[in-house]
Amino acid sequence: MKKIVIAIDGFSSTGKSTIAKQLAKTLNYIYVDTGAMYRAVTYFALENKCIGEDFFNTEELIDRLGEITITFKFNETAGFAEVYLNGKNIEADIRTLTVSKYVSPVATLSEVRRKLVEQQQLMGKDKGIVMDGRDIGTVVFPEAELKIFMTASAETRAKRRFKELLDRGHNLKYEDVLENVTTRDRIDSTREDSPLIKANDAIEIDNSNLTIEAQLERLTMLATALINE
Ligand code: DC
């Protein structure tokens, strides 16, 4: 059967990874969460004091990029591939508001992007992949057969993220989550290198009022039509 590349881009907390994960499972495709890779670099930067409350030593982080190895390993119980930094499982460590706060500035660095995009292109070279991020349909796989651009209002997205973090036991304020979502939107969309923009040939889906089932059904139909072409 023909294999395709599916690129899912969009603003933060639009539920891209939830849908991408389920779509990959339905199609028996590999799923790659590229946001987790930028988060892994940010986690490294925080751990190694390259970034913090009032400083960002970009030169040191760039110099030390060679020390960073990011891998994914499928977790049978979770049903998806978890991210590892130099052999250590950091899946939970990268989902904190602290990492969310610093990840957008880290993702503006061209040196970081170059390293991660190269790895992403290798992971998708045999197709049969669903990849979510910000620049998948524009930079990583401009030739992807199916490109989706997800949107939803900032309030809808902040509410979803707030609930998700509360459910995981984090103690935080809704206003801080909303502020993080809108700040990341701004930095991700206005950065010079690979800004978050909708590819010309991407299908836009506003999922503010769509259930996960409805989104999955639509994407599965779009993908199978292309696979069976
Ligand atoms: O999808 P996420 O919220 O986990 O992504 C975290 C950050 O990483 C996001 O604010 C911007 C950056 N990112 C990026 O620049 N390019 C990607 N392909 C994926 C994420």
Description:
- The chain has helices spanning about 15-25, 35-45, 60-65, 95-105, 110-125, 135-140, 155-165, 175-190, 210-225, and strands spanning about 5-10, 30-35, 50, 55, 70-75, 80-85, 90, 130-135, 145-150, 205.
- It has one domain: Rossmann fold.
- It has 9 helices and 10 strands.
- It is globular.
- It is α/β, with parallel strands linked by helices and about 230 residues long.
- The N and C termini lie close together (about 10 Å).
- Strand 5 (about 70-75) and strand 6 (about 80-85) form a beta hairpin.
- Helix 2 crosses helix 5 (about 110-125).
- Bound molecules: 2'-deoxycytidine-5'-monophosphate (DC).
- 2'-deoxycytidine-5'-monophosphate binds near residues 12, 38 and 184.
Main features:
binds 2'-deoxycytidine-5'-monophosphate; 5-stranded parallel sheet; 229 residues; single chain; 3-stranded antiparallel sheet; Rossmann fold; alpha/beta
